[in-house]
């Protein structure tokens, strides 16, 4: 079964310094029909003004993944981690029993565009963890590169959940497929450009929920950057 979630259907909040679209219920946006998808709880499509950002705030018992599309985001946390994340680098933070952090756009005159993703963990109360890893365009070109997973497949960062997040870049004749084992489902999110997923045309911000299917098939990309979640 295929269920389309169009970009324009998402929740939206514009705070001036932050323009954010919410795929699932978040903050003041509440839609009981879109509370998450399996363990996938949040995909926030954020644009952060130059020199602005999120002040110090806390999280617990959540796997948080930051994927920067344009610009940069400076991260500092109570674990002592500090880094400036740029396109190509992916951040994974397991909040565990509690972590405080801040996220700012350090660029003086450039907006930052990023996706913040939350996945519910399968364990609570662990020590918080931080990790960052680079994935080149070559690793994602015309294929699905695992970014995070429960088992560290294909050089991905390990999270505390039976879930895998892949990213791919597709243009022209490039295509890829992902086999879904019995009982698993997938969520396809188009970060930019356009692509055909399982016969459905999707544009930037669109998503496709795939259930009771054996494969995810991607083709017909036009400058597309795509995230695919493989979920129990």
From TrEMBL:
Protein name: Pirin family protein 2
Pfam families in alphabetical order: Pirin, Pirin_C_2
Residue stretches making up the Quercetin 2,3-dioxygenase C-terminal cupin domain: 147-231
Ranges of residues in domain Pirin N-terminal: 10-119
Binding site for Fe cation: 57, 59, 101, 103
Species of provenance: Achromobacter arsenitoxydans SY8
Alphabetic keyword roster: Iron, Metal-binding
CDD domains, A to Z: cupin_Yhhw_C (cd20311), cupin_Yhhw_N (cd02910)
Molecular functions (GO terms): metal ion binding
Keyword Metal-binding: yes
